[in-house]
Design a protein that fits this description.
single chain; 385 residues; alpha/beta; Rossmann fold; six-stranded mixed sheet; five-stranded parallel sheet; 13 strands; 18% strand
Length: 385
């Protein structure tokens, strides 16, 4: 019997690796060497991706100081996987909305410069492969800050250097790519992007996403105009187009910047992660897949990690049984049964407070007990047989 374990984090409680280890331990306690277990880190390209992949693939977390979204120095981080010359980055760690106090939120005044600094730091440590999640941004600068940190020069009509914030897009008249860090040309960027919006217009990044970053209706109109101006300059001077590419509008135009200037691929987050952890070969001959996350509901089917790995498993191994565990399940969670998950099991055993349920020791105990009961029901035998 072969069992593959790939569980997303129970956010605020168990990490992906914690959940996998607890699950594996419970199964081994029942069946010992009668089962083969393969554990994989799981994430969907959003929050938790750095920790999941870095820990699961034997990397280390690098802490470094960068320019934050408001132009101040902050302590940021990324995952370094030396064995693969790979860096795993969440842009929100350098330019996320969570880093900006609510009363200061204004995408005219935020920058992605710190993300570029993280990239340069990783490049200098030998990384040439990048996995970057771009969700949760505070920015709408079309990657101006990031590109500036990488060495691209932007000038106004007087040939003076343009600054790095969203509002500065309107001043760009000339772009000089010759000054970009030469090592960047050796790098391959894979961007976890679940947004399909174009760069500008009624479905663009300014109209759809800038309001949640603090933009007033007037600012939305301004920013959409500034971003179109930037795209027109890029098209005219560099003969590069891509404003209509699906995902160009992700993270305030960061998807556009990665695609146009760094030749990056924009991929659904879960697809990118599943390829990175190389789980396919083990799913092909597995009998059971254990997956899950903190909460299962109707949103789980919208590109979340458990459904992504469940669909992949069923595609390449139709006979595999897929079981999900979760901290809780909403009333609408049964929809996951139509998308690859054969059965799901919340791990709570009695009514307790949310804070108590999320305590790591409590969550581990509840998960272990639930896994034990699931596998007793599956009647795989007894460790003493």
């Amino acid at each position: 019997m072969k069992i593959v374990i790939a569980i997303d984090s129970f956010k605020g409680s168990l990490t992906s690796i914690d959940a996998a280890n607890v699950t594996a331990s419970a199964i081994k306690k029942l069946f010992g060497d009668k089962v083969t277990i393969k554990k994989f880190p799981l994430a969907d390209g959003g929050e938790g991706t750095v920790d999941a992949l870095t820990s699961g693939l034997g990397g280390e977390i690098i802490n470094t100081e960068v320019i934050g979204p408001l132009g101040e120095k902050i302590l940021s981080r990324y995952g370094l996987i030396k064995s693969k010359n790979t860096a795993v980055i969440e842009m929100a760690d350098a330019a996320g909305l969570n880093l900006v106090p609510e009363h200061l939120r204004n995408p005219l005044k935020t920058t992605t410069y710190g993300l570029g600094e993280l990239i340069i730091n990783a490049v200098n440590k030998g990384c040439r492969e990048f996995i970057i999640g771009i969700g949760g941004s505070a920015t709408n600068d079309c990657g101006l800050g990031m590109l500036s940190a990488l060495g691209v020069k932007f000038f106004d009509s007087d040939q003076k250097s343009v600054s790095i914030f969203g509002a500065d897009l309107k001043n760009i008249s000339t772009i000089d790519l010759s000054t970009i860090n030469p090592l960047i040309k050796e790098c391959k960027f894979k961007i976890a992007c679940d947004v399909k919006n174009p760069l500008y217009g009624e479905n663009g990044c300014s109209v759809i996403y800038a309001p949640q970053k603090g933009a007033t209706p007037e600012i939305v109109i301004e920013m959409d105009r500034y971003i179109k101006h930037f795209a027109d300059i890029v098209k005219t001077q560099l003969n590069l187009t891509g404003a209509e590419v699906e995902g160009a509008g992700a993270a305030g135009g960061l998807g556009y910047a990665f695609h146009i200037f760094l030749n990056a691929t924009l991929e659904p987050g879960i697809d990118l992660i599943l390829n990175a952890i190389n789980i396919k070969d083990d799913l092909k001959n597995a009998d059971i897949l254990i997956t899950g996350e903190g909460r299962l509901d109707s949103q789980t089917i919208m590109g979340k990690a458990p459904i992504g790995v469940a669909k992949l498993a069923k595609k390449i191994n139709p006979n595999i049984k897929v079981i999900a565990v979760c901290g809780c399940a909403n009333e609408d969670a049964e929809i996951v049964n139509d998308h690859g998950i054969d059965a799901y099991f919340p791990i709570l055993h009695k009514a307790i407070s949310v804070n108590e349920a999320m305590e790591i020791s409590t969550a581990k105990k509840n998960l272990s007990q639930t896994i034990t009961q699931i596998f007793r029901l599956l009647n795989l035998g007894d460790k003493n047989e």
